[in-house]
Amino acid sequence: MMRARGFKRGGVPVNQRVPFQTGPIENAFLPMNAVVLLKDTFTAVEPFPVVHVGQEVREGQLLAKSAGRGSSNVHSPIPGIVRRIDSVKTPGGFDSKAVLVSLEGSFSVLGKRPERYLWKSLNKADISHIVQEKGIVCVSNGEPLFEMIADRSSKPGFVMVISALETDPYRRTEEELLALRPEDVIDGCAIAARMALPARILLAVDEHIDATTVDRLRDIIVSSELDVSIQAFKRRFPQEMPRQIADALDIDDAGSLFVLEPSTLIALHEAVVANKPHIEQYVYIGGGSIKRPAILKARIGAPIGDLIEECGGFSGTPDTIVIGGPFRGRSAADLDASVTRTTRAVLALTAEETRSAPERPCVRCGDCVEICPEGLDPYSMLKLLRVGRNEEAGAIGLDRCTSCGVCAYACRSRIPLVRYFDDARRNEVRR
């Protein structure tokens, strides 16, 4: 196993991780009411609803059809009745239509013996059609997977990276999936490689990964006849982001990487092999206020409060509930926020963990500049944004900001820098 040196500048070392008990991943209880958002991210194009209020739907039935590039099909995670279709405000701060389905009727996926298709007999066009029809998205960014693969296949010479890296102190989902379902991850990798035709394939893992897991992965890779090299990376946030992976591998252009996670590959595998739409997501539930942290396999649209209850509920009053990681996540307004195809973690954090404090005036300490892995100047960008000079802020790097969150983490004045940067870019898109 080769070792990468890590990216060159900035970032946050993650020397300690929150203890986590590994084991089988449980299926979460089915939600009585699933609120299915039609947009996973702000930049996504909203699909067209194809159901109406009062209509009975089957498990896995199409709820909304892709509206073109940047949009993906959305399916019902449960059988039931469509009770409402309206617009909601998401934890990410953008508006999205949502379909409320109340549980009722029989299941067509749950508890059924799945059909198994020999995907190796399918051609590239057939596989792409299945991935598009089943609404598979990349869990890290919400982009339609078939579009990402089509774009990559038109640009030969790229490196496909299967990233099981999670370099914040809490999350464990991707590395647990790699350890518990390695055959499905590698099979998903083979399907993606058949479609995209990468020049080479890397499996990116934490430098402290269990040696037994590595040995098992090597055996599975050999039997799959894929040429995959395993690369160990240092535990420093945001190492899992494409630019930092490219930096660590001495690749000049991060655009020449195609990064996919084990959870995305499992969704791809299940779509092609088992004819299953993207109606489930693996979610890490943790934080100091959770009694029993766990990874749950949850239905899309399930309220996060249900998942927290399955983990024993709160051990104390949380200071905040974050959807996503501690650096890049967004606060949930309440426990009714629903799981989407990009929900990877729900953290109920204590006051000790958040170390909350009121925002104060900038003291020009320069910590944000020193810690930025992109080599940007967050202080100067914020200064320009506050006086309305957005174009100048873009010229000095706002458009290159990856919203990794380390500048806000380092800010001793508790200025929510990333929120200001994201809001400025969203306002620019709306114009």
Distance between the amino and carboxyl termini: 49 Å
The overall strand count is: 20
In the CATH hierarchy, what is the superfamily of the largest domain? NADH-ubiquinone oxidoreductase 51kDa subunit
On the 0-100 scale, what is the average pLDDT?
Answer: 92
**Low-confidence regions:** none
- CATH architectural grouping of the largest domain: 3-Layer(aba) Sandwich
With strands numbered from the N-terminus, the spatial order across the biggest sheet is: 3-17-16-20-18-19
How many domains would you count in the coordinates? 4
CATH topology of the largest domain: Rossmann fold
DSSP helix fraction: 25-40%
**What class, by secondary structure content?**
alpha/beta
Radius of gyration: 21 Å
Q: At the first level of CATH, what is the class of the largest domain?
A: Alpha Beta
Number of distinct helices: 14
Please tell me what the overall shape is.
Answer: globular
Give a short account of the largest sheet: 6 strands, mixed
- The share of residues in extended strands comes to 15-25%
